[in-house]
Write a structure and sequence with these properties.
α1 packs across α3. The longest helix has 20 residues. The two termini are 15 Å apart. By secondary structure, the chain is of the alpha+beta class. The chain is built from 3 helices and 5 strands; from the N terminus they run αββαβββα.
Length: 110
Amino acid sequence: MTDAEFEELKYAAIAAGYKPVRLTDDCKAFLLEGLQKPWNPLADDGDALRLAVGLRLEIVPVNTGVDVCLPGSEPFACACEGGSDMQAATRRAIVRAAARIGKQMGGGDV
């Protein structure tokens, strides 16, 4: 996991109302207070969908990738992935949008 992905996941977790505890031993996901399993919406469709639904995000596939916004607002997160992996682009856009919301809420240290 890159430093940028770590930061995005940390703030996305905060936006979702979770307290990030630490990375898993393999550094591929977060352990969150109150959840029994590792959490990584960048890699797990279910985690990404729960994050989007919980934050009421609108997801709009576009020719260049995926736009994500809050209802009634302009898109504030987008993602383009090389190739045709729209699932990965969608997960990334959801996490970016959630991270932006989490940063606005303030954040704590992990």
